[in-house]
Predict the structure.
Amino acid sequence: MKLKKVVCMILFALVSVALGACQDTPDITEQTTVDALIEAGLITHADMRDHEGFTSHDHMFYETDFITVYNLLRSTNESLIIYVGFAACPWCVYAINPMYEAAREQGVERILYINRRSETNHFPCEEDEWRPSDMENILMAFLEPHMGFVTRGELTRIFVPEVIVWDGTTVIASNQGTLAGHDAVEESLTEEESDKLRQIYLYMFALLK
């Protein structure tokens, strides 16, 4: 156990150094848009095939990372919808289709998807030794005045799926998890519950119109 913790700390230090070295990139100015970052290859159309039960190829999810979203939030006035999750998250499995359906109904062109478990976006230790990446901590600190994060010990963390609606200056809506009281490990969502979640997302996305 002690050896595992030492290895975990070493990995954390290495990741922190690597992130610190690239923290000033990409160079985002006030004129930068999501379209420009897509053209530059810093935001790409997400491959969602590993999300169980999600079959749409013509979807609005675009994959990015914590540093790009952080720089967009602080440097541009563009409205954004941000989804933080990962394919193996049980709650994300039940959220992805209602989110997609609501976005399609509202004519949403893009949802910025941060894959929490990608190599860029998380600290690679076992779950019981979980640590957020430096850039996740920075993004969370930026958003914390607007949102209710949950603290586990000394660590503040995002619980996924986290869907955030940003109007260019502040968070105007967010939804964490699926529905209140739903334990995705123990139970699925009924059709009625899934539609209720879709309506929550519908309301959130409509706020940008």
